[in-house]
Specification:
- By secondary structure, the chain is mainly α.
- The protein has helices at 7-10, 20-28, 36-41, 48-54, 61-64, 70-82, 124-136, 146-159, 163-167, 178-189, 192-202; strands spanning 84-85, 106-107.
- A two-stranded antiparallel ribbon has the order 1-2.
- This is Nucleolar protein 16.
- Keywords: Nucleus.
- It comes from Anopheles aquasalis.
Length: 226
């Protein structure tokens, strides 16, 4: 008796429209490295872990900066405390009167193995370059969406820094409170790439907005509604 085939296996058909060669090449690829510094020094003949290690970087962050194991630390402390032993008392002479309580325990320090100095990575300049670029940037990467920027500029043009009037505007479709408008305006003015052109157009680039005596922005730093 012939064994019946499964329906799923019986209905399988070869797809002639698929490019098997292209799919196999795609499966063998490890993906594109987005960082240009790493991509430039990446060796396709080596595994990713060795490539990253040769550049002076950490491939596995959990191994490079492990989470402290409290249980293991307690065991090490216990072992160190157990190594503290009193020294062997020498036989006292007949005329020597020494108090046995004065003899204190001396800890036995185990000789620690000397760690060998690690050789610098062959491509250490990659890690140095990435660290330098990270230290050079001190700005704000965050950007507000364009519709929100247009809304803030429109409200400031119309009401200045009167946040209570902004909340009562008929275009306040989201029904935001005056505190939310104040937070939006302050965040907008902390992003130089977005607020500098607007301040230049208004002539406020060199003005001190924290000056409460100036009537133009006396409510800029207010903490109450009045």
């Amino acid at each position: 008796m012939v064994r019946r085939l499964r329906r799923t296996k019986k209905n399988q058909k070869y797809d002639y429209n698929r490019n098997r060669k292209r799919l196999n090449i795609k499966d063998r690829l490890n993906g594109r490295v987005k960082c240009p510094e790493i991509r430039k020094e990446y060796d396709q003949n080596k595994v990713p872990a060795k490539n990253i290690r040769e550049m002076g970087l950490a491939y596995n962050v959990n191994r490079a900066i492990p989470i402290p194991n409290v249980k293991r630390q307690m065991k090490l402390m216990e072992r160190e405390l157990n190594n503290v032993k009193p020294p062997l008392a020498a036989p006292a002479a007949e005329g020597d009167e020494t108090d046995p309580e004065e003899t204190t325990a001396v800890p036995i320090v185990a000789e620690q193995p000397v760690k060998k100095a690690r050789r610098p990575a062959p491509k250490q300049h990659v890690a140095d370059q990435l660290e330098q670029e990270a230290n050079e940037f001190n700005g704000i990467r965050y950007r507000l969406p364009r519709p929100q920027v247009r809304q803030i500029m429109m409200m400031v043009d119309r009401y200045g820094f009167n946040y209570a009037a902004m909340a009562k505007d008929r275009r306040n479709y989201e029904q935001e409170t005056w505190r939310q408008f104040r937070a939006k305006v302050r965040r907008f003015l902390r992003i130089p790439a977005q607020c500098t052109p607007y301040l230049e157009r208004k002539g406020w680039l060199d003005c001190d907005m924290t000056d409460a005596t100036e009537p133009r922005w006396k409510e800029y730093g207010t903490d109450d509604e009045a």
